[in-house]
Amino acid sequence: xxxxxxxxxxxxxxxxxxxxxxxxxxxxxxxxxxxxxxxxxxxxxxxxxxxxxxxxxxxxxxxxxxxxxxxxxxxxxxxxxxxxxxxxxxxxxxxxxxxxxxxxxxxxxxxxxxxxxxxxxxxxxxxxxxxxxxxxxxxxxxxxxxxxxxxxxxxxxxxxxxxxxxxxxxxxxxxxxxxxxxxxxxxxxxxxxxxxxxxxxxxxxxxxxxxxxxxxxxxxxxxxxxxxxxxxxxxxxxxxxxxxxxxxxxxxxxxxxxxxxxxxxxxxxxxxxxxxxxxxxxxxxxxxxxxxxxxxxxxxxxxxxxxxxxxxxxxxxxxxxxxxxxxxxxxxxxxxxxxxxxxxxxxxxxxxxxxxxxxxxxxxxxxxxxxxxxxxxxxxxxxxxxxxxxxxxxxxxxxxxxxxxxxxxxxxxxxxxxxxxxxxxxxxxxxxxxxxxxxxxxxxxxxxxxxxxxxxx
Length: 457
Fold this sequence. Notes:
Layout (H helix, E strand, L loop, with lengths): L4 H16 L2 E7 L2 H16 L3 E7 L4 H8 L6 E5 L15 E4 L10 E3 L14 H11 L6 H10 L10 H12 L4 E6 L9 H7 L12 H11 L4 E2 L2 E2 L7 H17 L4 H4 L3 E6 L10 H13 L3 H8 L5 H27 L2 E3 L2 E5 L9 H7 L7 E7 L4 E7 L2 H4 L5 H11 L3 E4 L3 E7 L3 H20 L1
Parallel strand pairs: 1-2, 1-3, 3-4, 4-5, 11-12
Antiparallel strand pairs: 6-9, 7-8, 10-11, 12-13, 13-15, 14-15
Helix pairs in contact: 1-4, 2-4, 2-5, 2-11, 2-12, 4-5, 5-6, 5-11, 7-8, 11-12, 11-13, 12-13, 16-17
């Protein structure tokens, strides 16, 4: 595996720190990549017979840093999938380390972050991929499937395949027989669900009139002439002939474009799919597995997701499947609400203020799904706890190629109104005081214009 030499040294430092510690605390993010990261690290700690605890949080900010770091009783505190953007605000404690792929700030804290080594953390490796590299250094190569799950959960396969270090990890897992790589239509439940249910459950991309609607999915298949059943068995995507798959794909692309979506957004429908042969049911497919973990975190049950990631295939898996059903309904209802109300515009920005009508933990998912045109920035906001507002922002590679960096722009905008923020060039998040939403929009619009003009100039 091709890893920069300085990065290899950092990986060894992390592996040694884990080996030497007796009591370890893990703090991670609530999304699929965060829970996959925790699953990897906690699996290492379990195998190494360490005492450990784990906590998943929505965001690391100035409001919870002191609480999380007070009365540390562990030898080592590991932050996964968060921390790099706030590293300069953290206590300078030798027992703290960060494994994160978001845009970092420099600090004295030990960090494993790809950006320090010239690797793009928004597309080439996720936090779970970095955690796997530490596990690999310690001899635990069987944990590579979780790195793939985390990368897919962070949409790092959005171009139809995994790239960079993700691709290296994928090749290694494929060689070990831990994953099968194929090309197919990428919809939820392609192996496990009747086709009409798979279409109903697909939310990325959002399928107008189909996502969240069983009747809409059935009518779509009837319209394009693809059977619901063969004999007494429901037809799944994997049961279709190549001709039938072409009908489904053409019909979906036409549906997306006719209702205002872009051809670019429809391209995510086709690409590599990743199957884990050792798993059963929905955990066989990386996309389904990542959605399951994401649902657990977003619905407030991250511990269930981490237990599944660590190998629980009994009670916690059953709980996770039930949580996923509730999550899908919640996301579909949120999308329908915003499609009825429409988005507001300010220059290059589009935005929506959901208030209390959409849960703050799903606002990022909803914002990603609503991305439309090739060159726009979309900002979603929802009320959070303690008088705060959760902000999620998304843009396209076309705009980042013109100089837009959402992670930097949103961090500056959030700080200008008394909040915290950061992330990637194409996707970022923040928390700001309630009542400052429009002030943030004003600042963010000017900051993005400044970034574009800086490149043009």
